[in-house]
Each structure stands twice: as structure tokens, then as C-alpha cells.
Amino acid sequence: MDLRVLLIAALSAVLSGSWAQQEGSVCIKANAQSCGDCIQVAESCGWCGDESFLTVGESKSARCDDLESLKKRNCAVTKIENPRGGINIDKDKPVTNRKKDVAEKLKPEQITQIQPQKLTLTLRSGEPQTFDLKFKRAEDYPIDLYYLMDLSFSMKDDLENVKNLGTDLMREMQGITSDFRIGFGSFVEKTVMPYISTTPARLINPCTGNQNCTSPFSYKNVLKLTDKGDEFNNLVSQQQISGNLDSPEGGFDAIMQVAVCGNEIGWRNVTRLLVFSTDAGFHFAGDGKLGGIVLPNDGQCHLENNMYTMSHYYDYPSIAHLVQKLSDHNIQTIFAVTEEFQPVYKELKNLIPKSAVGTLSSNSSNVIKLIIDAYNSLSSEVILENGRLPEGVTITYKSICKNGVEGTGENGRKCSNISIGDEVSFKISIESQKCPSNGKPEVIKIKPLGFNEEVEVVLNFICDCQCAAEGEPDSDKCYEGNGTFECGACKCNDGRIGRLCECSKDEVRTEDLDANCRKDNGTDICSNNGDCVCGTCECKKRENPAEIYSGKYCECDNFNCDRSNNKLCGGHGRCECRKCICDANYTGSACDCSLETATCLAKNGQICNGRGTCECGICKCTNPKFQGPTCEICPTCPGVCAEHKDCVQCRAFEAGEKKDTCERDCSYFQLIKVKDREKMPQPTDQSFPLTHCKERDANDCWFYYTYAIRNDTKEVYVVETLECPAGPDIIPIVAGVVAGIVLIGLALLLIWKLLMIIHDRREFAKFEKEKMNAKWDTGENPIYKSAVTTVVNPKYEGK
After folding, report:
1. For residue 497, what are the β-bridge partners?
2. Which among 395, 379, 354, 458 is positioned nearest to 135, based on CA atoms?
3. Is 274 exposed, middle or buried (CB count within 10 Å of its CB: 0-12, 13-18, 19+)?
4. SS3 label, residue 470
5. pTM of the full predicted structure?
6. What contacts 16, CB < 8 A, 6 or more positions away?
7. Contact 382, 271 (CB under 8 A)
8. Residue whose C-alpha is closest to residue 185's, from 245, 253, 108
9. Which residue intervals define the domain Integrin beta subunit tail in the entry (predicted)?
10. How many CB atoms lie within 10 A of CB 569?
11. pLDDT(57) > 50
């Protein structure tokens, strides 16, 4: 085939616009050049593998479209490539129903708490695959507990109470599990200055006075995990207190060794509990510089003869490093600390998943209750975590917990308040946004924090169509054998481009071909948004696959449209060629104008109360006197009745203020007279708003009318007779006045008489009172004097 013929045919198709853009389809916009590229665009995209599907000059990318469009364009269903993903469960062992009172005892590896255990997911880009995961807390599940204790001098009295912890804790844990093991370790501090005193005497006995203490050490594994409580008691009883100089202790070094030295500690694949007991704070990464230690902690096991030997060489581990190691080894931590350091360790708990904090009494007498409570708290919650996800893969969780309580988002990863024997489930969706570069299967693991079981998920990616395996290399159907004919089209060899691989990349940058890629004979090739290939623009791809350039000259895109509320096209339309194509009932450059009128309806059922227009769901009042969301508020309006009173009065009764201008000012309504009020329209009988009015004229006569608007016609029904008050009756008024005057006079006389009687009675009572208070005998005259005078001789002696 002549190259010139092909080029002219292709150019003719481009210029004629035959199936050029199909801007409505995201599949077309992707400009996919092969079936593999097409199925990566979207879940809805398919590829037509029919060799005769395209007409002369059509681009290969026209084969990629949504399924319905391909069928409408007469592509046979059997020729449409649309591979789908799927789920295959490889290992689905049921969860274990185990009870303590059953004689048969299962090994830890025989107990299953999570189902299924292994799946294979086949993922196609944009198509999520969802599976159910079941979790059930097994009864009588084995527990390994390692007690890590601070043996600095301040913990002397605590050591005494811990010496019998082994048998006591064994006895208490029988209520939870019949398979319980316990171990013991201790720590003090790094054995360098300034953490301890390095004088020879203090290295032997770091305590002052007569106290007998053991030499300082960083971490010592005293007892490997064992089911013999007596052995725990014996070994712990032999321990001695040590000492150091500063208050924070080197507990992080000890926790790291306990986590990574699995063989030395004796951890099994069961529930692993680490009890960290101290009455002080902790050193962390960076503090080692005080002692000249600058190498970061390597997270490896360095126990020799059960002693940590590299404390002087490696710095303390960081909190993040500890979190990683504790999670990797499924260890749940219980911080048993005194009241003083509760705030510090509660903050630490928030950083370490599946950890708890308990308040330790001053002498550790409550340590058993603390451990039991903390274990119940930790085991009552299940939290799922997953390993590193491949690039472009996302995972979402939905939990169905106890009593049917559902959680999504971050809460979809966990369930709380789970008792032994309770079963909960999770819906897990995994979606791939693109095919990985190597196309090889990936493996991710999902596990509940603090448990040793996990779900292995193998991810297979659909990166190409099945028909690609049947491709014909160096096919004669491609121009001079410069491509592989697969899925009905040519897949060009390196260095070749074009629908039939007819162009060499070295030939496409010519002035003649580039002219076909300039819009309106401008200077920009493909609007600076694409490359000119064989005289046809191939638009650039953006980092965000949802953002697409399109158009004959790549002049269009779907991300540069107007926005409203920070949403493209207001969230009510789609962006096509930098213009918003609005959904139904929306308009405007940003689709931010709603055509719905429900929000504009006034109480009378009219749009904007008949005094405005509804624009974008908001009333624009045309009458400046009216305002409000539906133009119903009029602060200066007299009201409907008062507004039309004068016109109704002049037209019905030829009276009122507008009597002389009635014909000019009051012809805007239709007047209908009725004999009485019963003949007037009633509100319950009407399907349109109606107002009843009662007004008074200058002669104090009442007249009644109704005002309504029906089908844009104003109607007034008025009672044809006035209701005037009757004249006054003079005789009753005069009689009433006279009777009133007489009654008032009689009342005044009675009041005067009553007052006089009261006054007289008061005077008489006063007289009677003075009479009773008189000081002389009422039988003698007070002014009487006797006429006889008696004289006595003082010298008379009676002889």
C-alpha cells in the first residue's frame, strides 16, 4: 500500500471530523492505542476486536468505548473485549469452636480465629473486589506473658510483692486459659556515664549506705517463658535491686530485646503479652548522645548469656522503631506504672497500637488485678491492619460488629466490646487504579493487631486483553510488517506510529504534517497540549488520569470549567471542552443556577408572591416595596384590604376618596356584587389565594368584600348593601341620666348620715372614758369647806 494514499486518507478523515472526538465518552477521550490500554481507562470501557469495525481513516482509539456505544456502532458482542476481575478463595478453614471443659486440647497452630486465610484477587483497573472476613475470639486461647520489671533502687518494695507473682498469676489466669506461660526479665540502665557511676566501688554496689545491691546492668532475661509458676517464684526471689544515677530508665532497650529475641524469650505463636513495670520515665532515641553513643539502635537481638551486651554501643530505640517491632511480633504491651507517671505513659499508649496503661500501687500489690483488667481490655477489641500496598492499589474496610453495629472509614477497621466466643465480620474492598509497571502478582497481608494469624491476599492484575495472546507479530496487515496485529488492530513496533504503523517517528515532524495540527493556522501545535503524530494530534496525558485533554487540536479539556462552591461545574454537571454541560434543572456557566421553583413559592402558592421572578431558586423582587425570600414582606404596605378599600368603595358605592378618579384608577379588577356575606367565596372552596376584608366608610358604615387573583385575573366580590349602625334612643338615655343623678344624691346623703353616726359614737365613747378616769369621790362636793376650826395647845399635858 502506498504511504501517500494512507496519509491522504488519514488526513481526510481528520479534516472531515469522522468520529473525531466523541467528547461525551471518557473511553474515547483516553485515546487508547491498544486493547490493554483501553481496559485500564475505566471499568466501563471495552475494545472492539472486529477487524472491519473502523472505516478508512478512523483512529485506533475509536475502538475503545463504553459497551453500549460499541453495540450501537454494530460491534458484535462476541468481538467486544471486556475482561472482568474476580475472587478465588484458596484457603477457607472455619474458625475454631473450642471450649475449656472439653478434654481434647488443641495446639496453638490448630486454632483458627480468622477466616478465610488466603485469597487470590484478579483486579481490573477501576473495578473493586470485595470479600468478607470473619473473626471469632477462641475460647481457652493460649497466652504467653513476659513480666519486664524495673530493678532500680526505688522498686525495692515492689520486688518483694512480685516474688510470688508466678503461682498467684497462674491461679488467676486459669479462669481465662488453661495454657498459660510466664517469663521474667529485668532492666536498669545503660552501663556508661552519666547514667550510672563508673567508679570501681559503685560498679560492684551502686547503692549508698549499708544497702546490698547487685551490679548495674541494661537488661537481663531472668526466666524464659515457662508454665512452672514455682520456678518463676524461685528465680525472682533470687533477684536483687540495683541502682543508677538519673531518674529515667533504660526500659526501651529492654522492650526492644524482648520483642526481637523470640527464641531466647520463648515466644509461641499465641497471644503475647508484655507487662512493663516501672515507677520512672524512659530514655529514647537521641538520649544516648549524653553517654557518647551515637549509633542508632539496629533492632537486632544482642543477648549473650541472657544479658544485653550492646547497650554501650547502640542508642536507645525510637518510639516508632518500637511500634514497628512490637507490631511485627504481635506483642501487646501493658504499662504498669505508678500514679505519678500515668500521663506520660498514657501519651505513649496512644502511639503504640494494642497497648494499655494500668496504675501500679506504690508496692505493686495490685499487679495481678492490673494485668487481668488490662488483658480483658486489650482482647475485647480487634483492629485490622494491612501491609504495604502496591502503587495504585487502595483498600477500604467496613465492620459489622456486635449487635449489628456498622463502622466505616477508620472505624471500619475495628470492633470493640468483643467477648470470648463472639463473632464479628468485615467487608474489605480492594481496588487498583492502574496496572503495575512490571505486571507481576503482588501479595498483601491483613491481620488483627496483637494476633499471630493473618490473611494472605494475592493480587493478580489484568494488564492486557485475552486476545493479545493471539497476536500476529510482524503482520502483513500492518504497514510493511511494522507491527503486531492483535485484537483487530496493529500494535506498532518501536519507532513506528499511526493506525497501521505507517509512520516512522523520524518522519512525523515535517512542516506539511505539522500544519494539520495547528488550529486556525496558528503557531501552537496541538494547542501546546499534545504531539502531532502523522498529521494528527495525540493529546498529552496528565498525572491525574481523570483530567483529560481532547479535541481535534487538543484544545479541549475536562478540568478548566467554571467552579461553584469549589466544585467543578458546581457538582451539577460535567466539563466538556472547558464548558459546563449542566444536569437537568440546572443552568449557568458553573451549573450553579437551579431551575427548581419550589424554593420560590410563597404561602399563597404563587411564585415569588406574584411580585418577582425566580432566578436560580432565589426570588428577585420586581416591586421595590416587597422583600424577603418569597417577596412576601412589605414593611411599608398597608395590607391587601386597606390597599384596595378606596377602589372597592368608589366602584361599588360611588363614594370614598377616589370617587372622582374611580374610572381611571380602579379598573384593574373585576367587580361582582352579592346580596349578603353567605354568597361571598369561602377560602375552603377555592384553589387560589383569597382574602376576606371588612372596612368602614366615612359614615361609620361597614362594607364587606373579598379580593383574589385567579388565572392572573383580579376578582372582587362585594356585599351590595352597607351595614350601618342604628341611631340612638333618646328617652332611655334621659331617663338613665336622671335616675343616675337621683341615685348619686341618695348615695351621698346616706354616706353623710353614716359619717355623722360614726362621729357621734366616737364622741360619746370619749366622754365615757374620761368619766371613768375621774380622781374624786362622786358623793362629796369637791369645793365644800367645814366651818369648824380645831386648835390644840402644845403645852397641855393632860392634867
Report:
1. 503
2. 379
3. buried
4. helix
5. 0.55
6. 57
7. no
8. 253
9. 641-729
10. 25
11. no
Report the distance separating Cα 638 and Cα 647, nearest Å: 14
Distance of alpha carbon 180 from alpha carbon 227, whole angstroms? 6
pLDDT digits (tens, 9 = 90+) for 117-145: 999 999 998 899 999 999 988 888 889 99
Residue whose C-alpha is closest to residue 352's, from 383, 324, 384: 324
Phi/psi at 372 (nearest 5 deg)? -60, -45
Indicate the residue type of 240.
Q
- What Å distances lie between residue 54 and 31, 64, 450, CA to CA? 15, 11, 59
Residue 193 DSSP class:
T
- DSSP codes joined into one string, 363-407: TSTTHHHHHHHHHHHHHT-EEEEE-PPPTTEEEEEEEE-GGG-EE
Helix, strand, coil % (nearest 5) of the chain? 30, 25, 45
Alpha helix segments (H runs only) across 100-240:
156-162, 165-173, 200-204, 229-237
Q: Each residue of 679-728: pLDDT tens digit?
A: 888 766 556 667 888 888 888 888 888 888 777 788 889 988 888 877 67
Let me know: does 319 contact 348? Beta carbons within 8 Å. yes
199 and 208 in contact (C-beta within 8 Å)? no
Class of residue 115 by CB neighbours under 10 A (exposed 0-12, middle 13-18, buried 19+): buried
d(CA 356, CA 345): 9
- Sequential DSSP letters for 22-44: -TT-HHHHTT--SHHHHHTT-TT
> C-alpha 604: how far from its chain's center?
41
The 10 Å Cβ neighbour count of residue 586 is 21
Tell me the C-alpha distance between 791 and 795, whole Å.
12
Q: Where are the alpha helices (DSSP H) in 190-249?
A: 200-204, 229-237
Q: Which amino acid is at 178?
A: S
Say if residues 357 and 349 touch (Cβ distance below 8 Å).
yes
**Is the Cβ–Cβ distance between 462 and 499 less than 8 Å?**
no
Q: Regarding beta strands 271-278 and 331-337, do their DSSP bridges make them parallel or antiparallel, or are they unpaired?
A: parallel
User: In 10 A of CB 284, how many CB atoms?
Assistant: 20
Nearest one of 583, 126, 750 to 392, comparing CA atoms: 126
Q: How confident is the model at residue 797 (pLDDT cuts 50, 70, 90)?
A: low
Q: How far is CA 563 from the centre of its chain?
A: 24
Distant-in-sequence, close-in-space partners of 289: CB < 8 Å, separation ≥ 6 = 315
Return the C-alpha cell found at 792: 390644840
Torsion of CA 553, 557, 562, 566, to 10 degrees: -160
Bridge partner residues of 570 (DSSP): none
Would you state the cell numbers that stand for residue 532, as one nine-digit string?
A: 502531532
Bridge partners of 226, per DSSP, are: 182
Q: Is 30 helix (H, G, I), strand (E, B) or coil?
A: coil
Rounded-to-integer distance, Cα 318 and Cα 322, Å: 6
Q: Could you tell me how many residues make up the chain?
A: 799
How far is C-alpha 732 from the geometric centre of its chain's CA atoms?
83
Please provide residue 138's backbone torsions phi and psi, each rounded to the nearest 5 degrees. Answer: -75, 145
Query: Whole-angstrom distance between the N-terminal and C-terminal Cα of the chain?
Result: 203
Which grid cell sits at 202?
559503685
The answer to whether the beta carbons of residues 227 and 171 sit under 8 Å apart is no
d(CA 796, CA 462): 170
